[in-house]
């Protein structure tokens, strides 16, 4: 309850809208809402002429805006605040640091099911029958829907003089009279199940015995009543609720028999909310005992937390970092605090959730984009209401959940670039943001990896973070043997078999003969990178983007990986007309084709974006590989992220060159990380594994460093280069991308912006330049990069940048130019 219960004083609320607006908007609070409204509640407001949105109340005050006419809050959607003060502080930090609006943070932070927008369509819920529950306005809407089947919010607004239909819609939703489609097609609605119980009258033993005797004339009804008494443990001290579905299944009788008992009043039916995410959990197991090296690392981590808020656990692949995490989690939740366990990829959750569930049971909640919106809302509510979830396992968006008592954040595989959000705003890095989130909760952060990001290792070796090393693999298994295979030499000697060198095939064959499994890695999906004409060199390109189309054999089409455009294969070259098109490069699809032809009796599966579009696809593919239903698993970088397979003895990296030669200052670091991480999937439990790296340049220093597992050498060389060329960790990067459908307008705007920025930042400004891909989705692109010394105020630099962008945007010629700022680009 707020402190504004004063009858003659008008009160106002500043609200956050799910829109990219630079400021908050103020709305008046009606007398009926004054005593109910609190900061952190959702409210329905009208913004613009016709649209309604769910807004979040940020502050309540007495100051009436002078610049615009104030509208009134239409309705309140909550009985209590759903956003806490700490969450608002975290949102403000995200908006400030990553140069975006609070509205963009709000849109990213809340599941869609908690946002109501006026583009929705409304229809009757066929399960609703009790119209006596409806008030006058609700009855009007319900009757119109009965005749018209569907209505938009705008049409419902037109039924009433006051444009306040969303409050009526919300009430009808609460009463389960309607459902909402389109924007809210997955709007959160608690999942319910029907349960059966014995009526109060029949709980008397004498009456129950008499009823059982009388039902001997109706044996099927007697059967179902006896089943109810048995299955519900009715005569024990631990009576339990019995689901209607369970009773009918076990008793093997029709619904009509049960209905007869319900009509007689012997049994009663009621609905209870059940969780979509709460599955039955097997008996939990004790935590595994740590080995000597792990025990030492755990002790050092706890000691490090005495001096540092952030600690890096630098442990080689298969050293048992997850077991250390489990011990830490156990200690934190015993102290009554929450744990956030961040993962870089949804694929990882399928394996790790099974390990954690065995120890922590239903204390584990999962949060990622493959879950339906209703499931994400359910996790959100579970965390907010402090129910059973004490550990959240999730990807980057998990940092926005409503934690109240966070004690530890684990960022597993902290080096991964998938922790960075690219589009839309906020373009945050979950690893970095989690450190700020932990600070607001007084929590600790553990960063874990076998290949630390250079910035992270620099911080750890310069006393900004704690550092704990774990150099021994679990069960003392040796690191895999790295075998280099020269593609140029094999081609010269004409020994290549498709895309495979003889050495690669020899080790694959040996592993299959021994009943062992193989992983093949290629960081490119599709069949081939592009098509080219042998005669004139013409390459089919996307009509919307300046990029060649990738050939996907499974669907027999050329596809753009940037906008999704696809087209059929050209029979002839569209430039010279000759039937001379051939494929160039190769992706995971081609590897699958060729390996299946070479080893026709082995089972092959593929793990990439094309094969994992459904919610359960990751789990199914990884599960099949775990139980050895698959011999060879082919995949992209999804395979590099901490997956653990006991029977993998050989890992093949088929094209190291395309990683090394990517034009980016992080390419050598990323190549080392990817190759080392993929290599770590080999020989993880029983014996030393083998890793075969195919390359045309086997003497490349990064490949040599991977072979020798020499992170220190890679780190030292990259650090020297970055210091020389002014890159992180010595400088901060601010990348500005300008977009427009007209290249001349874009060129003019980008030139003016760069001139203004140079007046502020001098030679710290690079560009404007055309990026690697100069047009995406019919928008031309120009990039400007600013390198800021660490000693200079980052906030001041962003203020200057913001002012420069505003100066460009106020020019009427450039109002339609999109300007995207990416802080700390990856």
Describe the protein.
It is a single chain. Helix content is 34%, strand content 21%. The protein has 826 residues and is an alpha/beta fold. It has seven domains: 103 residues, GIY-YIG endonuclease (3-Layer(aba) Sandwich), CATH 3.40.1440.60; 64 residues; 82 residues; 168 residues, P-loop containing nucleotide triphosphate hydrolases (Rossmann fold); 175 residues, P-loop containing nucleotide triphosphate hydrolases (Rossmann fold, 3-Layer(aba) Sandwich); 58 residues, no CATH class; 93 residues, Alpha-Beta Plaits, CATH 3.30.70. β1 and β2 form a beta hairpin.
Task: Name the features.
826 residues, alpha/beta, GIY-YIG endonuclease, 7 domains, 34 strands
Helix and strand topology:
Blueprint: E1 12-16, E2 25-28, H1 31-34, E3 42-47, E4 51-61, E5 75-76, H2 85-97, H3 102-109, E6 121-124, H4 136-148, E7 150-152, H5 153-157, H6 165-174, E8 178-181, E9 192-198, H7 205-214, H8 219-231, E10 242-243, H9 244-251, H10 255-263, E11 267-273, H11 292-307, E12 310-315, H12 321-334, E13 338-342, H13 346-360, E14 364-367, H14 373-384, E15 391-394, E16 406-412, H15 430-441, E17 444-449, H16 454-461, E18 466-470, E19 481-486, H17 487-492, H18 502-513, E20 517-521, E21 530-533, E22 550-552, E23 557-559, E24 566-568, E25 581-584, H19 588-598, E26 604-607, H20 617-626, E27 632-635, E28 648-653, H21 657-660, H22 667-679, E29 690-695, H23 701-707, H24 711-725, E30 731-740, H25 743-761, E31 765-769, E32 775-776, E33 779-789, H26 794-809, E34 818-823
Parallel strand pairs: 12-17, 12-18, 13-15, 13-16, 14-15, 16-17, 19-29, 20-27, 20-28, 26-27, 28-29
Antiparallel strand pairs: 1-2, 1-4, 3-4, 3-5, 6-7, 6-8, 9-10, 9-11, 21-25, 22-23, 23-24, 30-33, 30-34, 31-33, 32-33
């Amino acid at each position: 309850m707020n402190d504004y219960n004063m009858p003659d004083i008008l009160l106002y609320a500043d609200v956050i809208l799910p829109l990219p607006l630079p400021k908050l908007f103020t709305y008046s609070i009606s007398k009926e809402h004054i005593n109910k409204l609190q900061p952190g509640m959702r409210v329905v407001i009208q913004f613009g002429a016709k649209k309604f949105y769910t807004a979040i109340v940020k502050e309540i005050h007495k100051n009436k805006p002078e610049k615009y006419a104030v509208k009134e809050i239409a309705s309140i959607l909550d009985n209590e605040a759903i956003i806490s003060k700490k969450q608002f502080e975290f949102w403000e930090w995200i908006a400030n640091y990553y140069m975006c609006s609070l509205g963009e943070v709000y849109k990213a932070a809340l599941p869609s099911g908690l946002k109501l927008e006026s583009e929705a369509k409304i229809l009757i819920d066929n399960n609703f029958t009790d119209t006596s529950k409806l008030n006058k306005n609700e009855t009007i809407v319900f009757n119109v829907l009965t005749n018209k089947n569907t209505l938009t919010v705008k049409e419902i607004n037109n039924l009433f003089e006051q444009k306040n239909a969303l409050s009526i819609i919300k009430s009808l939703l609460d009463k389960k009279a309607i459902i909402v489609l389109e924007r809210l097609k997955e709007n959160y609605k608690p999942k319910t199940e029907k349960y059966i119980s014995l009526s109060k009258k029949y709980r008397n033993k004498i009456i129950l015995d008499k009823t059982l005797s009388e039902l001997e004339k109706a044996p099927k009804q007697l059967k179902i009543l006896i089943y109810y008494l048995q299955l519900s443990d009715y005569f024990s001290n631990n009576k339990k609720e019995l689901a209607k579905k369970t009773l009918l299944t076990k008793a093997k009788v029709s619904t009509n028999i049960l209905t007869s008992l319900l009509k007689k009043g012997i049994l009663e039916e009621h609905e209870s909310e059940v969780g979509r995410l709460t599955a039955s959990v097997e008996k939990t197991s004790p935590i595994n005992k740590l080995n000597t090296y792990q025990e030492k690392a755990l002790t050092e981590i706890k000691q490090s937390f005495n001096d540092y808020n952030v600690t890096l656990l630098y442990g080689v692949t298969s050293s048992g970092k997850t077991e250390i995490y489990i011990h830490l989690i156990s200690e934190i939740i015993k102290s009554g605090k929450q744990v956030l366990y961040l993962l870089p990829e949804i694929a990882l959750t399928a394996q790790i959730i099974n390990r954690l569930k065995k120890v922590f049971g239903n204390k584990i909640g999962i949060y990622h984009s493959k879950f339906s919106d209703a499931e994400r809302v359910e996790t959100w509510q579970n965390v907010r209401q402090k129910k059973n979830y004490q550990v959240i396992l999730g990807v980057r968006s998990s940092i926005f959940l409503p934690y109240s008592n966070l004690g530890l954040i684990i960022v597993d595989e902290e080096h991964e670039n998938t922790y960075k959000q690219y589009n839309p705003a906020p373009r945050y890095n979950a690893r970095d943001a989690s450190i700020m989130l932990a600070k607001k909760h007084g929590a600790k952060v553990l960063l874990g990896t076998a290949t630390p990001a250079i910035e992270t290792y620099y911080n750890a070796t310069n006393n900004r973070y704690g550092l704990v090393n774990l150099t021994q693999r679990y069960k003392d298994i040796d690191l895999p043997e790295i075998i280099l295979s020269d593609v140029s030499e094999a081609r010269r000697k004409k020994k290549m078999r498709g895309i495979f060198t003889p050495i690669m095939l020899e080790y694959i064959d040996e592993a299959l003969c021994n009943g062992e499994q193989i992983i093949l890695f290629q960081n490119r999906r599709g069949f081939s990178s592009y098509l080219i004409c042998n005669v004139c060199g013409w390459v089919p390109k996307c009509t919307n983007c300046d990029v060649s189309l990738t050939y996907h054999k499974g669907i027999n089409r050329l596809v753009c990986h940037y906008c999704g455009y696809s087209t059929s294969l050209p029979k002839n070259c569209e430039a010279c007309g000759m039937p001379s098109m051939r494929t160039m490069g190769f992706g995971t699809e081609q590897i699958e084709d060729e390996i299946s032809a070479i080893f026709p009796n082995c089972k092959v599966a593929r793990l990439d974006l094309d094969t994992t579009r459904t919610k359960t696809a990751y789990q199914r593919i990884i599960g099949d590989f775990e139980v050895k239903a698959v011999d060879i698993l082919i995949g992209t970088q999804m395979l590099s992220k901490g997956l653990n397979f006991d029977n993998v003895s050989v890992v093949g990296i088929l094209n190291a060159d395309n990683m090394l030669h990517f034009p980016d200052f992080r390419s050598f670091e990323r190549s080392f990380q990817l190759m080392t991480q993929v290599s770590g999937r080999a020989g993880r439990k029983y014996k030393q594994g083998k890793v075969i790296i195919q390359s045309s340049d086997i003497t490349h220093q990064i490949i040599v460093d991977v072979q020798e597992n020499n992170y220190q050498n890679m780190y030292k060389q990259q650090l020297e280069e970055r210091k020389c060329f002014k890159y992180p960790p010595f400088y901060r990067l601010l990348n500005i991308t300008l977009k427009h459908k007209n290249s001349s307008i874009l060129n003019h705007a980008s030139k003016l912006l760069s001139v203004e920025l140079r007046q502020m930042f001098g030679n710290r400004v690079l560009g404007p330049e055309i990026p690697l891909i100069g047009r995406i989705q019919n928008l031309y692109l120009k990039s400007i990069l600013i390198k800021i010394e660490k000693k200079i105020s980052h906030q001041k630099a962003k203020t200057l940048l913001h002012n420069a962008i505003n100066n460009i945007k106020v020019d009427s010629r450039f109002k339609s130019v999109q300007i995207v700022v990416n802080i700390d680009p990856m």
